[in-house]
Structure formats: C-alpha cells, structure tokens
UniProtKB/TrEMBL annotation:
Annotated ranges, domain GGDEF: 279-409
Protein name: GGDEF domain-containing protein
Organism superkingdom: Bacteria
Species of the source: Photobacterium sanguinicancri
Keyword annotations of the record: Membrane, Transmembrane, Transmembrane helix
Amino acid sequence: MFTSIFSFNLSGQARAMTLFKNLFRISLLAGLSLIMVMSVTRFIALQSGTILAQQQHIQHALSQDFSLLPRQHYDTSLVALSAFLTMQLHPDDYQSIAIAPTQAQQQSLTITSPQTKSAAPAWFIAIFGDNSYSQTQTINLVNDTVIVTISNNEKWLADNLWHHTQQLLIEAGIISFSFTLVIFFLLRLSFTPFQRLITYAKQLEQTHQANPPPHTRYQDLNLLNKSYSSLAHKLESHFRVQAKEAAHLREKAYRDPISQLGNREYFLNQLDAWLTKSEQGGLILIQAKVINQSYRHKNYQRGDHLIREIAQTLNQTITHSNSTLGRISKTEFAVLLPQIQQEKLHSLAELILGTLLPLTKEFDTPLGITIGLVITEHGTSASQLLAQLDNAVIAAAQSPSSPIALSEGESNTNNKGKQYWKELVLSAIRNQQIHFHYQPVLMQNNTVYHQEVFSTIKRNDEVISANQFVGALDELSQGTIFDKHVIVSCVKQLQTDRQLPALAINLTRSSVQDPAFHRWLHELLPYHPLICKRLFFEIQEGCFIEGTDMTQLLCQLLNRFDVRFGIDNFGRHFKSLEYLNDFKPAYVKIDFAFTMQLNNPTQSAVLTSISRTAHSLGIETIATRVETETQLERLSELFISGFQGYIIERQVTRTNNVA
C-alpha cells in the first residue's frame, strides 16, 4: 500500500516537472511567435514604406512645372531638363533617367545614378530584391515634346531593407532573451509552492515523516497539501498498527507468556539456524526446581512472579553479544552464546548462579538452581546438544556446593582464547591470507541487487570462516581492524572492476559502536563518490535495539554519502518493528530461523507478518540461505523481494556463463 501510493507521488513529481517544462515551452513558443509576427509585420511595413517613399519622390519630380526651363534649342533644353530632374531626385531614388524626344531624328538622353556593390547578401536580394519600379511621363517643351522614364534604385532599396532587417533581428533577439528570462523566473516563482509540495511528497515517500509546506495563496495546492498530510497520517497509523500486529503474532508464536522470554520453539529455531553457521560457541541450561516448590507451597501468582524475577535477572546478567535466551520448559531456561570460550562460559555460569541464589532463600529447596554447560562441536545437532546439557545438569546436581557442570563431550579445539583469534586475524591481514567470496542476492525481477562479501582466512590447508573469529574480535572491541581491511579491499575491487555488482559488507558490532571507525569512514567515503553508490553495509538487528545512538549516527553518515545499508537477522529480537520507520534501511535480511520450516503454518504466518511490515515501508525484504527449489517457490509466495543462498548463486553463475 505504501509503495503503490508513493509510487504515484513520484510519478506525480515527474509530471510536475514536465508540467513546468511544458508551460515554459508553451509560454516561450507563444511569446516568440508573437515577437516574430511583430517583427515580420514591421519588416513588411518598412518595406512598403520605403518603396512608397521612393515612388513618391519620383512622382513628385515628374509633376513639377517645366515652364521655367530655358527656351533654347532642343539639345540645350534636354540638358536643362535632365539637370532639373537630378536636382529634384536623390541618387538613392533613381537608377536611370531616360529622356526620349518624340521626333525620331533627334537623339535621346540617359542619366544613370552611380552604383556600388550591394551590402545585402545574395540570398536576401534574391528573396526581397525584386522591387523594380519605373514611371513614364510626357513633358511638353518649347520646341518639342519628350517622354521621360525614371526607374527606381533597387540596389539602394535592398541595402535599406537589409539594414532595417538587421536592426529588427537584433531587437527581436534582445526582446526574446529578455522575455525568456522573465517567463522562466515568473513561472519558477509561481511553481515554488508546487515544488515545496513535491519535496514534501518525496520526503513522505522516503521517511514517512515530514513537515508540511506552508499555506499558499493557491486554493488547489492547499487542498492537495491537506490530502497529502491526511494520507501520510493514515499511512503512519497503518504502519504502526501493522507493526504491532506483527509483534503480537510473533510474541504469540514464540514468546513465553509468563517470563516474556522466547519459548522452546523459538530457542530451538535459533539454535538450528546458528548451527548451520558451523561456528564455535556455548550453551547454558539453567534448571530452577525452586519454581515447582513455589507453585506447590505458595500459589500460582507467586510462582509466576518468581519466573518473571528469574527471567529479569538473566536478562540483566547476560550481556554477551548475539546471545539468545529462552524458557524451554516449566523449570528450565537455556542460553545460546555464539563465539564464547570455555573459560568465559564457566565464569558467566558462576555469575548467573550468584545472582539467582538470592531468589531461592525463602524456599527450603536443596539444589534449587543447577546449571549445565556445553561447548559446541562441529557437526553437532540441536538434539545432541540438549542431551549433553541434560547430562551436565544431572552432573551438576552431584555437587551441591557448586552446582555447575560442563558436559564431557566438549572439544578442546573450540577453547582458543580471544587473543589467539586477534593475533590470527592480524597475521592474516599482514600476510594477505584473507580471501573473499561473493554471494549474489537475486530480486524477483531477476536482477542482482548486490553481492554479500564472505571473508575467510586461508592458512596452509586450513580454512577459517569469519564466524569463528568475529565474536572474539567484538569481545576485544577490535572488530574495526578487520572491517577496515575488508572495506578497503572491496573499494579497490570495485574500482578495478566497474562491471562488478554492488558489494554488501557485514559490519561488526564493535565497528558500529566505535566513533573512531565513524571518523575513518567519513574520511574515506568522500574520495570515492561513484563507489559509494555500489556499496552496502549490513548491520546486525541487535545494534538497532541496543546502542541505538551510535547506530543512528552511523546510518546518518552512510545516508550523507549515498551508501545504502541493510539490517541483518531481521525479526530476531522481541522488540517493536517500528524502529524501521526511524532508520529507513534499504533492505532487511530475514533471520534464518523464520525461513527454515516453511511448512509450519505458525512460522509462515510470522514470516509473512514481519516481511509485510518491512515491505509496507518500501524496504526490500531478502530471504537468506535459500538452498532448495521448494524453499524458493514457497518464499516467492510471501512478501519477499529477493533471495540469497546456494541455489541462487548457482542460478546466477549459470546465467553469467551462458551470457
């Protein structure tokens, strides 16, 4: 609805600009036509007046009284007559004067005006130079009668007309230029309120929040402005209702109603999605038998209150980035901690135990809280991890003094410390061991939207994905080191290959929250204005929920340089989706936990709801890890704009090879 209405606004803007141009052209054409008509009219009048004046001069010369001419012999009389006529006429008026006696035995006399080369061009003379005129009159002299023929001076007439034509052209040019400027500025001034309305509509289309233009003296524009404001208000209300409905549906499907944490299905979906990344991490299972004691010996209201206290305490205690917390049974809470080492996992478990034990003091329950830990192994399934956690909780119950146990199935290969990963990344940067793989995002119209950059470290025969070390870098607030290297490498690649599609770079949390990284980007981006249009940055949804101020500053910086950004793992957090209206990302990538089990009606409904919320703002919605044709077909039926995954990469590669 948003997209269709504001697409109308954009087309309205295009028509508004065309309207201005058309009105300007029409006004200019009308004005220039009028100027041309006036100039032609003046030219015709000047031409007619000049010819008429020349004719009148000749007629006047021939209508004089010749009785005063000397009464002498014939030849002397002809000379006197010619002298008289040349006195009456200007050389510009005549070309020749022919005096012919009526008696054949007498000689005629012809007088010619001196001629020079015409200043008028040949084409002008060919068009307007044919203005020949002659007048003949019989004059009675004393001794005889003569016939006088005077022909006009066509050369002077052409020169005179050409001179006037030049003046008319100069005047017409000056008037036309002045008229064009006046019309342009008058129309521009008249269109200023309309342009403000267009800007207002564009801002509504981009941000859905804009200050309406001031009241104008044009009634129709005021009505249109009022309609836009009313439409914007309705769309804003519609979006908020839609966002609340999406959040309500998601909570109903995946949130535990008592603890307000994710329920078992939500936690397992997140766990399954995370396991596909094959990255290290840890899990904590907290068994609170004290909850049963509360329900049995107190009441349900007190039991529910205890559950909420435990959930609130866990939320405040667990600050690990990208962690997932859920209530998976009546008395059990589980925590997923990506990229955490064994030592820190055990320290966090001790901290959790210390904060929860005070809640059990009023109940006489031995081992009211027991905690099981497990470090993930490659190829481990969710069911295996939960089984290991159950075994760890049983083992923890055997140690009342410290009811915390680590599953014996953990792998020592995952216990590398944060400093190890930091040194590994620094060494890989120095030795050019970081390699990039580009995975395309294909839109519904079969165009490549961008290519996401996946980084790996290749050392000897070992290949290490970014998922294995990014968490450690974030823990040390050193993610900017890696991000800078990736950004500089991608900028160089885009400069080298101008045919390469836009690249999308994932930013670490530490970079998003680092003011120094913001300043570095501010210095880098102005030098690459063309590259900015082919660059995307992907930011984890958690950054928009926590650390909002720094995330907003980064997004404003990116918008300033026309760098588009997207939200990764969209829909993962139980927060209102209204933050989309504040940040206006170019796209969102739906969290994989919502796109795995599309045969589940509840999951499909949640996916449709959160996708539609983003889609209503004109934000592209992208599904990731599309691996099968069935998954692609099912996603195409939902509010999904683009797709990314193995099957998409294979399809794009096949198309490029054919091309």
